[in-house]
Amino acid sequence: MTVEIEEAVKLLCENVDEIKRTVKAGLKDGLGYVLAEDICAVYDQPPFNRSPLDGYAVIGEDTAGSSFEDPTVLKVMGKVYAGGYFDGTVTSGSAVRIMTGAPVPKGANAVIKQEDTDSGEDFVKIYKSVSPWQNYCYAGEDYKKGEVIVKKGTYINAGTMAVLSSAGITEVTVYEKPRVAVISTGDEVIPPGQPLMPGKIYDSNQTYINSRLTELGVPAFYLEHIEDNAEKMAKTIKKLSGRADFIITTGAVSVGEKDIMHKVACLLGAKELFQRVNIKPGSPTFAFVYDNTPVLALSGNPYGAIANFEILGREVLAKLCQNSGIKMRKVKAELKNTLKMKEGKSARRFLRGRMEEAGVYINEGNHSSGAVSSMLGADCLIEMPQKAPCDLSKVIVNVYEI
Amino acid sequence: MTVEIEEAVKLLCENVDEIKRTVKAGLKDGLGYVLAEDICAVYDQPPFNRSPLDGYAVIGEDTAGSSFEDPTVLKVMGKVYAGGYFDGTVTSGSAVRIMTGAPVPKGANAVIKQEDTDSGEDFVKIYKSVSPWQNYCYAGEDYKKGEVIVKKGTYINAGTMAVLSSAGITEVTVYEKPRVAVISTGDEVIPPGQPLMPGKIYDSNQTYINSRLTELGVPAFYLEHIEDNAEKMAKTIKKLSGRADFIITTGAVSVGEKDIMHKVACLLGAKELFQRVNIKPGSPTFAFVYDNTPVLALSGNPYGAIANFEILGREVLAKLCQNSGIKMRKVKAELKNTLKMKEGKSARRFLRGRMEEAGVYINEGNHSSGAVSSMLGADCLIEMPQKAPCDLSKVIVNVYEI
């Protein structure tokens, strides 16, 4: 059964559960994880009424009508630096020298910029008026004690880290990352480093998917290459079920005699999700679930494996991780060059491209699904219009960032 | 001296040298590095004429005029699987059963799809004609032996890894990553985990920049917090020069008494690049070079530090790494909501926002440069139009992805 891409995504995601296993981590180790708890503020942020600039803490009303020609003169009662604390109270006619980030002393309700004064030490001349509550950051202005500041389910990126750190958080409970296994197949495929015998080729699929998982922050926990042996593959999947959250295989999904993956699903009595996808490249992409473990069996053609990992595999990872940021981001862009396309293709076709400010370009070189070199410089997949106009350039296309 | 953003970038980049130190790495460890050598193909890719599908290797001319009603019958001389090799020669009237990825036997010049035959074992009925060189992947079609397949200076992402792996490469010479030191200042700043005494706040700047460096693939090699002590800071920078490729500090760049960074530059006799940038937030961003080491002194205001790290710091990192992918990516998008802006601001203003398919949204919450919580969910900086129309929504703005 051939399904549309959206149906394939739906079937996969319906059969994948979010990971609920959690782990406590020091804040520094939380980067790249998803928060498994609400984080509440234990303090106001800022924890005190704060000066946003260097100047003098004053009572705003005291400065009314001040000008360079007719300055207000205030007595300077003291000085407060960031990190310090002024224990007195500002009363009418007085001021406290204050630095950026320091707590505004009691009594004061505004800060006059240093540049609008004579920077006096014992007495200060104020050249401009400042309204009450001007240049005055309230305690809790950023967030308040008791408030949920970061919600459960939030992906912890650098911005989240900054917020958690500002709140004094030292430990977070996060969801474990999925355990992803990558198994390449193919009697012809050998790892780099071995001599290249006739009929053999060097692996690129396992390398791509393993590297991509690392880039996406979900490094593979298991890597293997298995020859075209259905029993051995079935045994390995059995062994991994319950340990792996997601198994990705490459190769052996077509109609040839050694295309073992459909037989593997039979041997395992697995629940098939789909057998083919209406996509070019990689239409023989096949998926099944064995013992609650989703298995995405990608094409052995490098670009078939790549495109379907990006389009389908990342959706599964996003669901497992509860992190929609793992999905491909879709944008619209103007196609800046063109490619002669064969007529009468009904499958949705994705080409390797690169995005620039002006629009999107189809990569040069060989676009066959067996070719890997056109991955160089590619940063997106371009969905080609299904009914191609004569001149494809300047058409607005869907672009998926990789 | 206040400079425009572009001038600040130019001054920084002119005073930063690309890192030329190289290191040999196993291919697996090369991910995320920049290649310091041209990589040539040692073999053709594919290394042999290859079948792109499951079927029969034939002489195309033999199949001319074949149809279901009037099939051509060919003698099947043998079978070749991917990874195998057929040692005979296909002659007129004969065929070899062939699987996807297998070498096309000598003599054959095309492959007929299995679906267009009766899948016969000793003799096969061919139901459709196939032209010579149809379904035939030439050796070297992807890339040829001796060709430079990946150029020096290429960033090694998963796509590059796939190409290198397909070529059997096991080791690469890459540029070392820059050694970046991050030093936060501020007597008021304490690390999470310490009790919050009056006047103190928890660090968020060092956490943000350290996390961001990790996200950008250039983890910090040195982290420190220094109190507002110019001599101590100068001594630390002296100690780091020659070891660090780039020093980023936060805080102490304004006009207050404890704003030590300008004094530090004096003490070191460093070459000042600029003292302020025409940007909001973080205009007091200051930069100098000491002993060939660039120092970017960011604002202590969290959002001031964040925005200028993204806008200026990443340019320095990109130059050091020879990887333009580290720079912020600029796109244009429609602003979908609005924010009341004060009149008469001449500085270029950047707001925290989030990109969606339809356009870009200014984040909710407190946008003051001292506020950190509006970083939550932000994935871009939005450059606000300098002369704001009354209704900002639907205006096309420059957006910088973070």
Question: What would the keywords be for this entry?
Answer:
402 residues; alpha/beta; six-stranded mixed β-sheet; 6 helices; 25 strands; 17% helix; 28% strand
Structure description:
The structure is a homodimer of 402-residue chains. By secondary structure, chain A is α/β, with parallel strands linked by helices. Chain A has helices at 5-14, 158-166, 205-215, 230-240, 261-268, 302-321; strands spanning 2-3, 22-26, 39-40, 55-58, 72-80, 94-98, 110-113, 123-126, 148-150, 171-175, 180-185, 189-190, 201-202, 222-226, 246-250, 271-274, 276-277, 279-280, 286-290, 293-298, 329-334, 348-356, 359-362, 380-383, 396-401. In chain A, strands 14-11-15-20-19-16 form a six-stranded mixed β-sheet, with helices on both faces. In chain A, strands 18, 21, 22, 23, 24 and 25 form a six-stranded mixed β-sheet that branches. Chain A has a five-stranded mixed β-sheet with strand order 7-4-6-5-8, with no helix packed on it. In chain A, a hairpin with a 2-residue loop joins strand 19 and strand 20. In chain A, helix 1 crosses helix 6 and helix 4 (230-240) crosses helix 5 (261-268). Chains A and B meet through helix 2, strand 13, helix 3 and strand 21 of A and helix 2, strand 13, helix 3 and strand 21 of B.
Helices of chain A, by number, come to: 6
List how many beta strands of chain A DSSP finds: 25
Mean pLDDT of chain A: 95
| Shape annotation of chain A | elongated
The CA-CA distance between the termini of chain A, in Å, is 28 Å
Largest sheet, spatial ordering of strands of chain A: 14-11-15-20-19-16
**Helix amount of chain A, in percent?**
10-25%
Strand content of chain A: 25-35%
Low-confidence stretches of chain A: none
Structural class call of chain A reads: alpha/beta
**Biggest sheet architecture of chain A:** 6 strands, mixed
**Most residues in contact: chain pair:** A-B, 95 and 93 residues
Instruction: Provide the gyration radius of chain A in Å.
Output: 31 Å
Oligomer: homodimer
